[in-house]
Amino acid sequence: MNFTHGKSGSGLPRTVLRGATALGVLGVLSGVTVVPAHASAPGTPKELASFYGQKINWTACRADKEAQCASISVPLDYKNPKGEKISVTFSRLKATGKRRGVLFYNPGGPGGSGLKIPDNIRKSSLRGTYDLIGFDPRGTGESAPLYAPLDWAMATKPYVGSRPKLDGPGNVFDKQTAWAREYMGRIEKKNGGAARVKHFNTSNTARDMDVIRGLLNEKKINYLGYSYGTFLGAVYGSLYPARLDRSVLDSAVPPSGMGQTYGELQSQDGLRTVAEWARWAGQRDRTFHLGTSRADVLDTVAKVSQKLGQEGAQEFDATMTSDAHDISQWADLAKMVGDRRDHPEKAAKKTAKNATGSAKEEWSVRSNEIVSSEWQWSSDPESYRAKAREMLNKHDYGRDMSAYLPTASTFRGFTPPEPPRITRRGYPTKGLVVQAGRDNRTPFAGGREMAKTLDDTLITVKNAPDHEQYLSRDNAAVDKPVTDYLLNGTIPSGNPVVDGKKSYPDIPAD
C-alpha cells in the first residue's frame, strides 16, 4: 500500500498511523492478495504479537513496476508499543528459480531509499535463488519520512573552507555553530519534537526489519548492505543473531558508527592519500612542474586553494581528496592542480555553473541528521574549537575543516535512547566484509575493524578507490567469491586480497 506524502494539520507526515488505524486501512483494500502472517518467533515479547500478526496486503510498487509493495504498522517506540504507530513500506521481487529464502537489501545513507532493488542486483544470479526484499527505513521515502528545510540549509550554511577563521568577529566557527544549532532545531520542530524523532534510529529500523521477516513467514533473513547499510546489518545481527543467516557488508563503517570521530577519520584518511599523491608527483616534477618533493607539491596545492576564493576552493579541495584515492587518476590530478594554478578563473566558472542546480523543494526527506545523532557527539562547542585549532596546524594542504566543527548532531535535543552496540555473540553463520583498500568515502580502517569485531572474513580489494564493490565494478575477483558465498555458503579461506583493477600511471620518475 502506498500512502500519500504530505503534512497533516499537526505538521507531521500523513504516513504516521495511530492505534489500529493502520490495520483498519489495510483491511478495506480491494483487488490485493492477503497473506496470512507468520507467528512471531520465540522470544518475541507478547506486547509485539499484534505487529507480527498483521496481514500483508501486496500492491504494485510506485518505486518499482516489477515488484510488489506493502506497508505495515510498527511502533514508533518498541518499548511503548501501545503508543504511536508509524507506517513502514517494503518491496519484494520473487525468486525466479529454486528459492532458498529472502535477501534483504539496504543501500546506506543513513536515509537511503531501498524500495527499488538496483539493476546490478536484480539482474544477477541472486534473483534466481532469493526473494529480494527492499525497504525504506523509518524516516525515509515511504516509511514515515522525516522532513528538513533543505533549501534553507543549502542557502544559509557557511563555507568552512581550507583555512577557516576560528576566532574573532565574524569567524566561520561561530557561524557554523549557529547554523548547526538552528538546523537541528528546525528538524526537530518540523517532525514532532526531540522526544519523537529520537526513535528514528538504527536499532528500531532493525526491529522493523524483524517484523517484516516474521510477516514473510521466514525463520531467518540473508542480508546485503552497503556503506551505512553495513552498520544496520550488524545491528540486526546483534539484536537477532539466530535470525540472521548469510551476511555481506560492503564498504563498511566501523562498529563505533558514524559519529564525531568518524568524520575525523575520513578527514585524516583524505590527508594521507593526498600526501601519497604529492610524494609521487614530486618525483615527477619534470612532467608536472608542481615541486620536487612531497612538501613542495603540498605547498603548491595550498597556494592554489587559497587563490581560488570560497566557491572555487570548495570544489578544488573536494576534488583533491576524492581523486587522490584513485591511483589511476594521479596524473590527471596533477594536471588539474597545474591548470588551476595557471587558470584559476576556470574553477570559478565551473563552480558557478554547478550551483544553479540547487534543490527547489521547501521540505525534503532527511533522516541522516537524526540517525547520525545516535552516535557519540560532544555537546560542548568549545571542545570542537580546540580540536579544530589543533588540527588546523597539522593540515599539510588545508583541506575543508568541516569534520572538526560542530554539526547538527552536536545540538540534538535528546539523549539517544539506546546507542547501538555491535557484537558477534550468538552469530550462527560467518559473514563477509568487502572493503576497498582506498575507498574514498568509508576508510579501509573502518571495514577492517568491523570484520574483526564480527569475526567475519575480510575481502580486501587492493588499490581500489571506489565506494561499493560487489556487483558494482565488473570485477570477477570480488563478485565470484561473494556470490558463491550467498548462493552456496562457500566462505573464502583466510582474508583474501584481490586485485582492484587499478594501476599507477605509466609515467617514470625523474
Description:
The protein is α/β, with parallel strands linked by helices. Helices cover 38% and strands 14% of the residues. The chain has helices spanning 21-27, 49-52, 119-122, 126-129, 150-156, 172-190, 194-197, 202-215, 228-239, 260-282, 285-288, 294-307, 309-323, 330-342, 344-354, 368-372, 381-392, 444-454, 476-488; strands at residues 16-18, 33-35, 56-60, 68-75, 84-93, 101-106, 130-135, 147-148, 221-226, 244-250, 364-365, 432-436, 457-462, 497-499. Strands 1, 2, 3, 4, 5, 6, 7, 9, 10, 12, 13 and 14 form a twelve-stranded mixed β-sheet that branches. Helix 18 links the parallel strand 12 and strand 13 (457-462). The protein is globular.
Number of distinct helices: 19
Fraction of residues in β-strands:
5-15%
Distance between the termini: 65 Å
Mean pLDDT: 88
Large-scale geometry: globular
The Rg value, from CA coordinates, equals 24 Å
Instruction: Catalogue the unreliable spans.
Output: 1-39, 350-362
Helix fraction, binned, reads: 25-40%
Largest sheet, strands/sense/barrel: 12 strands, mixed
Q: Could you give the count of β-strands? A: 14
* Category from helices, strands and their pairing: alpha/beta
